[in-house]
Specification:
With about 130 residues, this protein is an alpha+beta fold. It is built from two helices and nine strands. A five-stranded mixed β-sheet has the order 4-1-7-8-9, with no helix packed on it. The protein has a four-stranded antiparallel β-sheet with strand order 3-2-5-6. The chain starts with a helix and ends with a strand. Keywords: Secreted, Self-incompatibility, Signal. InterPro entries: Self-incomp_S1 (IPR010264). One of its GO terms (cellular component) is extracellular region.
Length: about 130
């Protein structure tokens, strides 16, 4: 759904909510992103995640360790978090771990499993894998 479509939908919801009561209703969704180190072997995974507004810092995950953060999505449809990943002697890899227009209906709890070939996420009861950016 485009940002324009979401804005129209939001306007309609606000209009209906305002007409039926004196309470202003703004839809929101709290989302949690979890990153799991599922690399083959015992490689440590160094991650650095950011959004336009927030730098979540550098974290080193041992095998099967996780890092997670939570946030409220924007009513404007522009919430985005991206991360860099590095392990062993491999070059850094990047992926957009959350893009609101892509993910807001797919995952409220986004569970990512980092593999050498790319990140994988639980979607509708199965594991969907992606290529690095």
């Amino acid at each position: 759904m485009s940002v324009f479509s979401r804005s129209i939908l939001l306007l309609c919801i606000l209009t209906v909510a305002s007409a039926s009561s004196n309470v202003l209703f703004i839809p929101s969704q709290h989302t949690i992103v979890t990153i799991n180190n599922t690399l083959v072997g015992n490689e440590d995974l160094k991650i650095h995640c950011k959004s336009k507004e927030d730098d979540l810092g550098v974290h080193v995950l041992k095998k099967h360790e996780t890092f997670h953060w939570g946030f409220w999505i924007s009513v404007f449809g522009n919430t985005q978090f991206f991360c860099s990943f590095q392990w062993g002697k491999s070059p850094s890899q990047y992926y957009d771990m959350y893009i609101e227009n892509r993910d807001w209906l797919t995952c409220e709890s986004c569970n990512w499993y980092i593999k050498e070939n790319g990140p994988c996420r639980t979607e509708y009861d199965h594991l969907q894998c992606y290529h690095w950016n």
